[in-house]
Amino acid sequence: MAAAARLPSSVLEVVFSYLDIADLRHCSLVCKSWYKFLNDEDNDVWRFHCVRKLAEEALKSDVLSNVPTYKAKLRAFYHAWNPNDCSRNIYVKHNGFTLHRNPIAQSTDGARSKLGFRTGRHCWEVWWEGPLGTVAVIGLATKEAAMQCHGYVSLLGSDTHSWGWNLVDNLLLHNGDNQGNYPLLNNAPKYQVGERIRVILDCEDNTLAFEKNYEFLGVAFRGLPNTLLYPAVSAVYGKTEVSMVYLGPPLDG
Predict the structure, then answer these.
(1) Do 102 and 214 share a structural domain?
(2) Which of 13, 92, 180, 233 has its CA 20 to 30 A from that of 169?
(3) Which residues, including other chains, have CB under 8 Å from residue 34's CB and lie 6 or more apart?
(4) Same domain, 92 and 159
(5) Residue 42 and residue 27 share a domain
(6) What is d(CA 213, CA 205) in angstroms, rounded to the nearest whole number?
(7) Structural domain for 37, as ranges
(8) Chain CA centroid to CA 126, Å
(9) Distance between CA 127 and CA 58 in Å, rounded?
């Protein structure tokens, strides 16, 4: 262990660049110096893994503009849309963070993230990059929630397995019921295409909240179940695109 702790950073960078993420997690537990080295989220090890995993398009565009470090960008990639867990009418673009809905008539289509949450506090951004249509819902879903249905409906929030905020009419939805207006503001402004909505999940308090333009909009849902919950959206407009980027634990205040 003493010899490992004395290895220079240049050697560690080369060795760690060949290891996968799980191995790096184990390495961070070997000694204090390795932990300190790997805890630097912007060093060349994380840069190497980031460049290897993420598309150049994602790294050069502004999709990750609110993700400051290489390790955080890599973390966001592992939490991005799951191309194997979405409607057949949706595909995830090459950047890995943006979904595209094909122009299919009389269909509502959804997508889930790669990873779900059962513990901790988590924050991610979602934004529409095309027209919303009559229904555009962001929120949460369990693995049991459907990701496609016939017609133009609020798919997310249509059953007991999902919770959603319809950005078109500012209504909260769960179990097929209208849960009331959101946010609770007089003449609350409607969502504008391109605005980034921050979604805040607190698995300790079992709540879901939203933030827009750095303004906390209040708790939207309480009493969430103690099960894996996945960031999710549902859309109806043909050729619309929705991006999602995981940010990590929310910053209080």
Answers:
(1) yes
(2) 92
(3) 4, 5, 12, 27, 28
(4) yes
(5) yes
(6) 24
(7) 2-75
(8) 7
(9) 15
